[in-house]
Amino acid sequence: MSQPVSVPQPRRKISARTLAVTAMLSAVAAALMYIEIPIPVLIPSFVKLDVSDLPALLGSFSLGPVAGIVIAFLKNVLHIVLKGTSSAFVGELCNFALNAVFAVAAGLIYKFHKNRTGAILGSLAGAVAMGLFSVPLNLITNMMTLSESMFYSAISSALTLWSLILVFLGTMVVHQFTVRKTIGSVLLSLGMIVIIAFLVLLGFSISQQMTTFVETIITELLRR
Q: Of 82, 104, 203, 223, whose CA is between 20 and 30 Å from 127?
C-alpha cells in the first residue's frame, strides 16, 4: 500500500495592512517616548507616566501578541536612531522587555476574550506582569552596572601596576642597576618627590598667609 503523501501547508503571509498598522503604531510609540507626564499625587518628581506603551497594547489587541512585541522593539530602535542612548542601551533594553511583557500578557487574555471585559482584564494583568517582571530586571541591571564599575576599577589598578613595573624595569636597564640598587633608587626618588611636594605646598600656604596679612595691613592703614 502506498502511504499518503503529506502536502505542505502554505505559509501565511503577512498582509500589507498588518505591516502598515505595525509601522504606524511603532512611529506613534516612538513619538510618545518624548512625552513625560509627571504624577503629582504622593509620587516622587522623577517618576513619569510612560504613555508610549499604549500603541504596543493596541497592536497586541488588534494584531496579536507578536505584533505587540514588534512594536515595542521598533519603538526603541527608532528612539535610539533619533535621540541616541545615554545608558549604553540598557535603558532601551529594559523598556523593550517591560513593554513586551505588558503587551503579551494583555494580548493573550484579549485573544480568548475579545470584549470590553477581556480588554480591561488583559490590561490589568499586563500591568501586574510588568510590575512583577521589573523587580528581577532592576536587580539584574544593578548587578550589570556594579560589575561594569568593578571591571573598570580592576583594569585601572592593573594598568597602574603595569606602569610601575615598567618604570622599575626601565630604571634598572638604563642605569644598569641590580634589583636591590634599583629598589633603593626608586624609593629615594619617591622620597624626594614627597619632600618637594611638601615644600611646594608649604610655600604656597605661606604665600597665601603672607598675602592675607599684607591685605589686612593695607586695609587697616586705609581705614585710618
A: 82
Give residue 38's region: left, alpha or beta (phi > 0; psi -120 to 50).
Answer: beta
Q: What is the mean pLDDT of each run of 10 residues along the chain (224 residues)?
A: 54 74 87 70 51 86 88 88 77 84 89 84 84 78 61 61 68 72 75 82 84 83 76
Comparing CA positions, the residue from 182, 180, 184 lying closest to residue 192 is: 184
Separation between Cα atoms, residue 18 and residue 209, nearest integer Å? 78
Burial class (CB in 10 A: 0-12, 13-18, 19+), 162: exposed
Whether 57 contacts 123, CB under 8 Å: yes
**Crossing angle of helices 65-83 and 16-32, rounded to 10°:** 50
Nearest in space to 66 (alpha carbons), one of 74, 77, 141: 74
pTM tops 0.85: no
Query: From residue 187, how far is each of 30, 167, 180, 190, 193 by CA, in Å?
Result: 61, 12, 11, 5, 10
Handedness of CA 169, 174, 179, 180 (dihedral sign): negative
What cell was used for 90? 540598557
Dist. CA 43–CA 63, nearest whole Å: 34
Task: Find the helix or strand (DSSP H, E) in which 187 lies.
Answer: helix 179-223
Sign of the alpha-carbon torsion through 111, 112, 117, 122: negative
Cell triple for 164: 610601575
